[in-house]
Specification:
Layout: E1 9-12, E2 14-17, E3 20-27, H1 45-72, H2 78-88, H3 91-104, H4 108-124, H5 129-149, E4 162-166, H6 171-180, E5 184-187, H7 195-202, E6 207-209, H8 214-217, E7 223-227, E8 232-235, H9 239-264, E9 276-281, H10 284-292, E10 298-302, H11 304-310, H12 316-330, E11 335-338, H13 364-369, H14 371-384, E12 390-394, H15 400-419, E13 430-434, H16 437-441, H17 443-447, E14 453-455, H18 457-464, H19 483-498, E15 503-505, H20 516-522, E16 526-529, H21 534-543, H22 546-557, H23 562-574
Parallel strand pairs: 3-4, 4-5, 5-6, 9-10, 9-16, 10-11, 11-12, 12-13, 13-14, 14-15, 15-16
Antiparallel strand pairs: 1-8, 2-6, 3-7, 7-8
The structure holds phosphoenolpyruvate and magnesium ion.
Length: 575
C-alpha cells in the first residue's frame, strides 16, 4: 500500500455547494489545455475556426440549459447567466475572433483571449460603473469558451458513490456524474458563480472548488471526506476523524429531516405576501445554522466581533478572509456586513475616555474619527464583494454629512482598488442602520443617499425613550412596542417605500413573538434574526394575514401606550 494511504491530509478549497460526503476518490484526467501554441499554420485555419464555433455552440447550449434549470429552481442567478449568454452569442465578437484566426494565424484559444481582453480594456476605462462591471462578466464568458476549447475526453468512468476529482468540470459532466450516482465533486478551477457550481447547488451535490493541484494531491481510491460547508477535503482520514464526520453527516441529515418542509418553505403570509427572512450572524458557525434553517441571506454581520475575539483591530487580510468565507458560504444569498460598531465601552484602544459612551464616539462617529481603520475595513469588504452578494451597512448614522463622508471614503477606496486592478463589486449596495431618532425622522433625506435601510430597534428604542438598554433600573421604560418607536419606524418605512429601497429590521424586535404581524403590517421587506429563531419566525409569518396585519399596524401606531399596543396584538391573536 502506498505511504500516502496512511497519512491524513487536509486540503482547503472554496465551498461551492453545501453538505458532507464521504467516499472513494475517482480522479479524472482531462487532457491538458489544447493549445499553448500562439500561431498556427495556414492549412490549420479551417480546423481552428470550426473548433472555435464548436466551442461557442456547446458553451451556449450548456448555458441555455443551466438558465432553464436556474429559472425552474428559482435560483437568483438566471439574469446574470442571461447576460453571459448575450455576450457569448454576440455576432461581432465571434466575427472578430474568426478574423484573428484567419488573418493573424492565431490559435483559437489565443484569438479568444485577445478578443476578450481587448473588449475588457475598453469597458475597464468606462466611467459608468455598470459598464465597468461588464469587464468581470467578459472574464466569465472568456473562461467558458476556453473551457469549451479544452479537449474534455474523460479517461475514467465514474463509479457510484464516488467523489469526483477533476481539473475542471462542465455542467454536462456534472449531470452525467449525478446520473451515475457520484456523491460530490472537487475541481481545481472555477468560481462559486460558475455554471457547474450553480447546478451543484440546485441538485444538492456537495462540492469544493478551486483546489489547486487536486488531481495530483488526491489519488484514485483515496478515502475522502468532503465538507462542502467549510470548503474542506480530508484525505485518508484517521478513524477518529472519519467517525466525527460520519456523525456530523448523520446529524445534518437528521436535522434536515426534523426541520422538514419548513426549512425549504417560503417565508410568506398565507395570503401570499413574502418577506425576506434573514439571519444575524457573529461567526462562521452561525452561517451554517442560517443555511440549514433556509435563511434568504444574512441581514446583519456584527463585524465588531472580529475585534472582540482578537483583542486588536483585524488587518485587511484577516477581515477579507472572514468576509469572503461568509459571502462564499452564503452564496448566492446576500450578506449584509455592518461596519464596526465600536465605542469606548466595547474597545478602548486609541479612544478618549468617555463618561457616556452610548452617546459618544461610537459606530460611524468612531469610524470617521479613525479613517485608517474605516478604510481598511471598506477595502476588505469591497475585495470580498467580488461575487456580488455583499452589502455594506453603516451603524449609528445621525447626520447626512456622516453618510456623505462615508460614501466619499468608499469611492476613494474603490479608486485605489481599481488602480491596483483588484476586483470588487462596483455596484455593492451601501445602506444605513436606522437606529437614531434623527435618522428615522429624516429618513427621506437618507433614502436619497442610501441603497437600503435596516432598523436597529435596540438602539432606536434606547435613544427614543432615553432609556439605557443595559440598565435594569430603566428596563420597564425600554420597550420597542412604545408607540413613539413604532411611529419613527413607520416614518422610515414610508421613506424607503417612497424611494423604492428595501427596508428591514435587524434589532431584537424582529424575532419577538408578539411583533411579527405588527412588523409585517408596517410594511418591512426583511426581518433578520438570530439563526435559532428563524424557523419559529417563519412559522409565524406563514400564519399571518397581510391585510389584517396592515390594519393592526395602523391601529397600533395610533395607540397611546405600549400596553395598548400589546392589548391590540393579543386581541387580534385571539380572533
Ligand atoms: C440594534 O441597535 O437594534 C442593532 C441591531 O444593533 P446592535 O444591537 O448591534 O447595537
Ligand atoms: Mg445598534
Amino acid at each position: 500500500m502506498p505511504a500516502h494511504k496512511h497519512i491524513e491530509r487536509r486540503i482547503k478549497g472554496i465551498p461551492a455547494s453545501h453538505g458532507i460526503s464521504i467516499g472513494k476518490a475517482v480522479v479524472l484526467r482531462t487532457e491538458a489545455f489544447v493549445s499553448s501554441v500562439e500561431h498556427i499554420e495556414p492549412e490549420e485555419i479551417p480546423n481552428e475556426i470550426s473548433r472555435f464555433y464548436a466551442a461557442l455552440e456547446s458553451s451556449a447550449a450548456e448555458l441555455q440549459h443551466i438558465i432553464e434549470i436556474a429559472e425552474k429552481e428559482a435560483i437568483h442567478v438566471a439574469p446574470i447567466l442571461e447576460t453571459y449568454l448575450l455576450i457569448l452569442t454576440d455576432q461581432t465578437a465571434a466575427d472578430s475572433i474568426k478574423r484573428r484566426i484567419q488573418q493573424g494565424y492565431y490559435s483559437a484559444e489565443i484569438a479568444v483571449v485577445q478578443e476578450f481582453d481587448a473588449q475588457k480594456q475598453f469597458f475597464k476605462l468606462a466611467k459608468d460603473p455598470i459598464l465597468r462591471e461588464r469587464a468581470v462578466e467578459l472574464d466569465h464568458v472568456k473562461d467558458r469558451l476556453l473551457d469549451g476549447l479544452r479537449n474534455r475526453s474523460i479517461t475514467h468512468s465514474v463509479a457510484a458513490k464516488s467523489i469526483v476529482v477533476s481539473p475542471s468540470i462542465t455542467p454536462t459532466d456534472l449531470m452525467m456524474f449525478n446520473k451515475a450516482g457520484a456523491l460530490a465533486f472537487i475541481t481545481e478551477v472555477g468560481g462559486i458563480a460558475s455554471h457547474a457550481s450553480i447546478l451543484a447547488r440546485s441538485l444538492s451535490i456537495p462540492a469544493v472548488i478551486g483546489v489547486r493541484d487536486a488531481a495530483q494531491l488526491i489519488h484514485n481510491e483515496d478515502t475522502l471526506i468532503l465538507d462542502g460547508n467549510a470548503g474542506l477535503i480530508i484525505c485518508n482520514p484517521k478513524p477518529e476523524t472519519l467517525a466525527k464526520y460520519e456523525k456530523r453527516k448523520i446529524d445534518e441529515e437528521e436535522n434536515r429531516r426534523k426541520l422538514g418542509k419548513l426549512a425549504t418553505a417560503k417565508a410568506e403570509t398565507h395570503d401570499g405576501h413574502s418577506i425576506h427572512l434573514l439571519a444575524n450572524i457573529d461567526s462562521l458557525e452561525d452561517v451554517e445554522a442560517a443555511r440549514t434553517a433556509g435563511a434568504d441571506g444574512v441581514g446583519l454581520v456584527r463585524s465588531e466581533y472580529l475585534i472582540i475575539q482578537r483583542q486588536h483591530f483585524p488587518t485587511e487580510e484577516e477581515q477579507y478572509e472572514w468576509y469572503k468565507q461568509i459571502a462564499e458560504r452564503m452564496y448566492p444569498h446576500p450578506v449584509t456586513i455592518r461596519a464596526f460598531d465600536v465605542g469606548s465601552d466595547k474597545y478602548a484602544e486609541g479612544m478618549p475616555h468617555e463618561d457616556n459612551p452610548a452617546l459618544g464616539i461610537r459606530g460611524i462617529r468612531f469610524l470617521l474619527h479613525r479613517k485608517d481603520i474605516f478604510k481598511t475595513q471598506i477595502k476588505a469588504v469591497l475585495r470580498a464583494s467580488q461575487h456580488r452578494n455583499i452589502r455594506l451597512m453603516l451603524p449609528m448614522i445621525a447626520t447626512t454629512e456622516e453618510l456623505q463622508q462615508s460614501l466619499d471614503l468608499i469611492s476613494r477606496c474603490k479608486r485605489q482598488l481599481r488602480k491596483s486592478d483588484t476586483p470588487f463589486d462596483d455596484t455593492m449596495p451601501v445602506g444605513i442602520m436606522i437606529e437614531t431618532p434623527a435618522a428615522a425622522i429624516m429618513a427621506i433625506d437618507f433614502a436619497n443617499l442610501a441603497d437600503f435601510f435596516s432598523i436597529g430597534t435596540n438602539d432606536l428604542t434606547q435613544y427614543t425613550l432615553a432609556s439605557d438598554r443595559t440598565n435594569e433600573f430603566v428596563a420597564h421604560i425600554f420597550d420597542p412596542f412604545h408607540p413613539a418607536v413604532l411611529r419613527l419606524m413607520k416614518i422610515a418605512i414610508e421613506a424607503a417605500k417612497a424611494r423604492n429601497i428595501p427596508v428591514g429590521i435587524c434589532g431584537e424586535m424582529a424575532g419577538h413573538s408578539a411583533a411579527t404581524e405588527l412588523l409585517i403590517g408596517l410594511g418591512v421587506d426583511e426581518l433578520s434574526v438570530t439563526p435559532p429563531l428563524l424557523l419559529e419566525l417563519k412559522k409565524r409569518i406563514r400564519k399571518a394575514d397581510y391585510l389584517k396585519s396592515q390594519i393592526l399596524a395602523a391601529v397600533a401606531v395610533r395607540s397611546e401606550s405600549s400596553n395598548e399596543v400589546r392589548k391590540i396584538i393579543a386581541k387580534e391573536r385571539k380572533r
